[in-house]
Amino acid sequence: MDRNTFTGLFLILIILVGSTYLMKPSDEEMKREKYVQDSISRVKANPSAAKQPAGKTAGVPVPAVDSNLLRGPFGSARTGTSQTVVLENDDLKVTIDSRGGRITSVLLKNFKTYDQDSLVMFRENESKFGLTFSAGNTTINTSELYFSPSTQSLKVAKADSGSVTMRLNYGPDQYLDYVYSLKGEGFKVGLTIVANGIQNVVNAHQPINLNWAATLRQKEKDIEGEHKYSGAYYYLSNDQEVEHIGTTESEKKEIGEDGPIKWISFKQHFFSNVLIFDQGFSKGSINVETAIQPGVVKSFSASVVLPFKNEQVNSFPMQFYFGPNRFTTLKAQGYDLEKQIDLGWGPLKWINRVVVIPVFSFLEKFNWSYGLIILVLTILLKVVLSPLTYKSYLSMAKMKVLKPEMDEIKAKVGEDNPTLLQQEYLKLYRKAGVNPLGGCIPMLLQMPIVMAFFFFFPNLFELRGESFLWMEDLSTYDSFINFGFSIPFLGSHISLMCLLMTISTLVYTYFNNQISGATGQMKYIGYITPIIFFGVLNSYPAGLNYYYFLANMLTFGQQYLIRQLVNDEKIHARIQENKKKPESEKKKSKFQQRMEEYMRQQQAQGKKPNK
Asked: Which contacts (CB < 8 Å, 24+ apart) does range 370-375 have?
């Protein structure tokens, strides 16, 4: 053997020894390979579980699985037997399935649907929850994999708390956990997602998406009302207000561009499914489908990105809220969940939040029926507004006293010159010391409160299922007459309380016209408006129409008392005294000043004022 041959063989030996040492798998890789091989051996020992057509295992549907797939990421979790775990307290019964490790149904123990059936928030086959991410060349969807539960069932005592862990194994010390927790009472279910040792398994260049979807079925008598008040709500960490989509039509929206997403809610009229993440999802999208089959309110879906980091342990503590849309209950949960209740816009919202709700909550403490609470609430409101009611009545009485003189002016001037006619009217108002808007302004000041109740009662959870007199449920319409078919403008029924409210409004309008002396178009508009509102409010909650009816009846009582205090002859005498005062002593209102200036400009230009 020559020198060159020896040198070549020696180098080859060094390469073989070095490559054997350098290419030796790590202990972690050897453990993981052993884990996979053991799984394959178990499958070979039971071929029927390795490759089977789509069907059922232990009564639970499973997909067809090829044994070759077991070599991929989380391969051993692609087959299994579905097991359910029940986690419950005094308020909730939560069912969790090992397939997907997800909550498949939530029963609210202390509530019923409108037809007295068990109130289940969503059904197993109409909900989804899981993570999707890329591992190697495979897209992993955890909702299709089998988790290992730590227990079969757990009932939590009132003063205690408990938890259930659903584990998805990848290898020794490498797993994905869903840790569910529940306190002894309340509507919150904790969910902590823990990813341990899989930071090198997950493709860091692809996001980890959390996908959540649910189809929500009818729970209230009026499904059209549920459609109106249901939608997807979400709250960004830097926002003051809650945003929403899908209340009127199908809608999809990308969210999270303006800040982390604190929570997402699949909201029905009186119940909500909320996913809360205090750290905030970085971005995502939500979708609402409204055109669904009969008995279904809406279908919701959301996909958000988890802020996964290249660390040994990634932990994402979250919470679910499955419960009623009672303002005080939602507020007690924190995170501004109560803001998803529509209490109106602008000042109407603050009237309800700052005044109406605290007063209503105070009256609840007396344990009266809700019909009586609404009556007392209306009385308190009328007492507070009585000064405005008095001023409005007094102003209308003054206008009635002036009506004969206004008719004389109209006959003298004629209707061909409306500018001159209005000028003469203003002179009369100034001489008599009467503000023509004196009756309107107090009524306008009361309008925000009246409109605030228009939002308050339809969203008042406390009225749900509460009966009063013939009204079986104050939170929906009382169908005194059912047609069996739908009529345009009215619907399929007539609400007796809405009918009484309309009749009382017409009577109120009649007496109001007698006081104010209204004629012409204004007189007839007062009669047409209640008829229009009858069609609008016929399908609104009986509690709202009951409030409007009470408000009308109490107004009758107020006007009767005021009439005893106000004497038309004294008003007329006072007006005559005002007429005798010098012009310098008469103070013009801003309205009168502006109207006089407007009339002078119109007369100077030779134009008629716009009607």
From this structure: 370/462, 370/463, 370/466, 370/468, 370/474, 370/543, 371/466, 371/468, 371/469, 371/471, 371/474, 371/546, 374/474, 374/543, 374/546, 374/547, 374/550, 375/550
pTM: 0.78
Residues 526 and 521: their CA atoms lie apart, in Å, by: 9
Decide if 349 is inside a domain: no
**Do 167 and 313 reside in the same domain of the chain?**
yes
Over residues 36-90, the pLDDT tens digits come to 455 545 444 444 444 443 333 334 444 444 444 455 677 778 888 888 999 999 9
> What distance lies between CA 547 and its chain's CA centroid?
23
| Residues in CB range of 310: below 8 A, 6 or more apart | 199, 204
Edge-to-edge strand ranges of the sheet holding 208-217: 138-141, 127-135, 208-217, 296-306, 284-289, 251-255
Predicted local distance difference test score (pLDDT) of residue 611:
43
Q: How far apart are CA 76 and CA 70, in angstroms?
A: 6
Residue 277 included in any domain: yes
**DSSP conformation letters of 175-227:** EEEEEEEEESSSSEEEEEEEEES-TTTB-TTS-EEEEEEEEEE--SS-HHHHH
Q: Does one domain contain both 160 and 292?
A: yes
125 in the same domain as 52: no
Q: What are phi and psi of 427, to 5 degrees?
A: -60, -45
Same domain, 325 and 404: no
d(CA 62, CA 143): 12
Q: Which residue has the tokens 């029963």?
A: 107
DSSP-assigned beta bridge partners for residue 103: 96
Tokens 């059936």 found at: 117
Element (H, E) at 60: strand 60-62
DSSP conformation letters of 221-290 = S-HHHHHHH-EEEEEETT-SS-EEE-SSS-EEEEE-TTS-EEEEEEE-SSEEEEEEEEEEES-EEEEEE-
CA-to-CA separations, 177 to 102, 153, 367, in angstroms, rounded = 11, 17, 46
What confidence score (pLDDT) does residue 590 get? 56
Per-residue pLDDT at 431 = 67
pLDDT of res. 483: 85
Three-state SS across 416-432? CCHHHHHHHHHHHHHHH
Rounded CA separation 398/402 (Å): 6
CA contacts within 13 A on the Cβ side of 72: 18
Collect the ranges in the chain with pLDDT lower than 70: 1-72, 152-154, 156-159, 415, 430-443, 515-523, 566-611
3-class SS string, 88-126: ECCCEEEEEECECCEEEEEEEEEEECCCCCEEECCCHHH
Answer yes or no: is 20 within a domain: no
